[in-house]
Specification:
The chain contains four helices and no strands. It is mainly alpha-helical and 95 residues long. α2 runs antiparallel to α3 and α2 packs parallel to α4.
């Protein structure tokens, strides 16, 4: 199921990849991020498949910690990108 995300929204690549990964049952940074934001994405009209487990935010942090690349700052950056995407999508839908 290819994700149909407008390319003019910030973070569209991350959200598209996450939706595709969730649909395919793959655990990735983007899939866990989308799982965290799934209720908000669904409210915005995007089809977010179930997945990511019970606590995708915790699993995302664990996954980032395993890379040894500064999990805290990377986690915050990913969440900020998702928030930016959601804000832009909300703004686009209100036009």
């Amino acid at each position: 199921m290819p994700a149909d995300i407008p390319h003019d929204l910030p973070g569209h690549d991350l959200v598209s990849e996450g939706l595709d990964d969730l649909a395919a049952g793959r655990e990735s940074e983007s899939a866990l991020l989308v799982a965290m934001a799934a209720p908000r994405l669904r409210a915005l009209g995007f089809e977010a498949p179930p997945g990511g487990g019970e606590r995708p935010s915790h699993r995302l942090y664990e996954l980032l910690s395993d890379t040894g690349r500064g999990a805290h700052s990377r986690y915050n950056a990913l969440v900020a990108r998702m928030v930016s995407f959601a804000h832009a999508a909300e703004h686009a839908s209100s036009r």
